[in-house]
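Title: [Solved] Alpha-galactosidase 3D structure

Original question kept below for reference.
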Amino acid sequence: MKLHHLSWLVLFFILLNNSTILAKNSSDWTGITIDIKANYPVTATQKIEKQKNGFTRLKIVLANDGKQPLTIEQISICIPVIENTSNETEALFGGSDMWRNTVILRKLGQLDKKCTSNFYAMLKLSEGEYLFAGSLSWRIFLPYITIKNGAFVITSNGENKQLLPGQKIDYEQIVLSRNTNWVNQLDQFGAAIAKENKIGKLKDVTYNGWATWDYYGRVFTADDVNQNMDQLNKLPLKTNLVQVDGGWWPERGDYTLVHNKIPGGIKAIGARVRAEGKMLGLHFDGFRGDAKSEICKTHPEYFLHDQDGKLFVKTQESPDHKLEHTFFDYSHPGARAYIASCIKNMKENWGVSYFKIDFMCNGLDDFIKGNNKLISFKAYNPGITSVERFRLGMQAMRDAVGPDGYFLGCTAVFGPTIGFVDAMRTGNDINPVYESFGERALSNSSNFYLKSVFNLDPDYMVARAAEDEDATVSIEDRKSGGTLSENEAKMWVDFVSLYGNIRLNSDNLTTLRPERKAIIMAGLKTPKIDETVPLDLWLHATEKNDAIELLLSRSGKKIYLGIFNWSDKAKEYSLPEFGKSATKVQLEGRHSVIIKYEGNKSFQQLCQKLKSK
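Solution (posted by the thread starter after getting help):
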């Protein structure tokens, strides 16, 4: 076949243009440097690979080419940004956990120590132009991603990770990207995390019911649980979960024992729950014990020790109890066998099928140390990092929970839990205080892209004020004596209704006034949400309480828009792209509304039209 001369010329320029694009793409991420602090030299090699999903993967291998075992102290990676930035350029740092390192948006000229993430950092160069650096794995090290001096900088505490002569390990899997759409960028990132960690289809479940914690704290009786179950059963809707939270054990760590305020133990509660066709959920602290516990006295070797070989104890004064925390050392096979036996007992003898394992951050050295004078931990296996130790514990728990059990992670650094949990609490503990709501709405909704990694849990629905309480209310901070109004309570219930797959109330249903109970009941009836996007994320998130106001959610084929006016003054919202019902929305201060979509656009099309640029 002959081509016309003009066709050849056009083809030449197409090829030339493509070559230029390819050349630019291949050199987009250049000048990357890796600095390793160790007691002996570490050989670090890097390789850039373009992925089919649009990401560029940075693969780093660390090797001991010497003749002596070595230990790694610190890892630092610098990835220069070739584009021009200024002090006014905005950067978004993804949340890493549910309470400490939550999402934050800052200009480069205003960065501080809060501006770091174990997940990602994203630069907004202009409207529709974003640069991205993120981690897909957390297997040996915790990567901390920030931006300094015109570069993405990723650091990790080496925690004296040992490399034997000739040994090689992969650093965590880093991905880099340029994108024109921040929602697509984060959705693609979440999908890449799921693929990297071999996560298949998530459990398609919706839970609704009641839990003990927010009203009773650690102090409750079997009568408290039974009376609330009576009230739950009187509601004109079907519920499927009752969760017993912390406080049922005599001492933390003794998870085969139950204190004497629960006659018949958890087994008796479970028998009633299951007889009524519901699941029993049980909370416990999976990474801490107590110096007073029987397990700690009998097997101190199951717990971490300090550099001098002394059992590490961290004291905490609680309103109802003095806690002497000790920390499980899951590098010890006995500790793993013990926690697995506790879970199997809960499952096989008590009838527990929903496991809320809390305080997971206490499996990681940086979070345990706090302000203590501790120099280092002495673990059973000193050659591995706390991330590796953590994952050994997680594997033991996952195996014990089994494929048919539901595993909810809580107070976790998200990364190292991925691949083990079915669900994750993605925002801080709620309180029946209005000031808590916006902060929790921001931290939860900003983790929307993790929907393919685990099911998302926003925490309990609460609607009580002081008038809804009696003498049994928790003495924990911010749990009693509140002034929550009905419209304020509805705002939090509206948010929970538009996010995740769990709807649990945690008030006292025996004292909650009818109008408050009606708010809760409306929330308990709402379906599982398949995806959620905080449309105005880039207009907020400058601080923890700088909450998003526009939330787009989808449940099956139904699409909803949540509008939240967290301010004290009335506001008008105009969102004609969503339809006539959202063309002019007047909201008083501290009010919210949920609008159902009646048009023909897809969820993705609406996101594109409504999201901040």
